[in-house]
Amino acid sequence: MRDRVHRTGAVVGALLALFATGPAARAAATESGADDASLLYLSSGDWQRQSAPRKVALAADFMRIFCTDQRMSASSLADCLDHDKADGALFERAMACVSALSAGR
Length: 105
What we know:
By secondary structure, the protein is mainly α.
């Protein structure tokens, strides 16, 4: 019985350590430019913390999936998102920027 309690305690301790380091590991991966980050999952604050090249890469990835006008530049979308101060999810803001940029052509 005592052995079982010890094993259960060890498992619980390992799980707690895993849960505690999970958010920190994810934040480090996002900061390092990991490819698993997407504009879909970023908050406005996360967007502002990205480097300029990373913003353009995220915008290009977004446009590859959601835009039909392939002539639009990813840097234009990144610039629009940098200057757009509207409230709302970054995805919604990106869609509004793409729409505005397309209408201006």
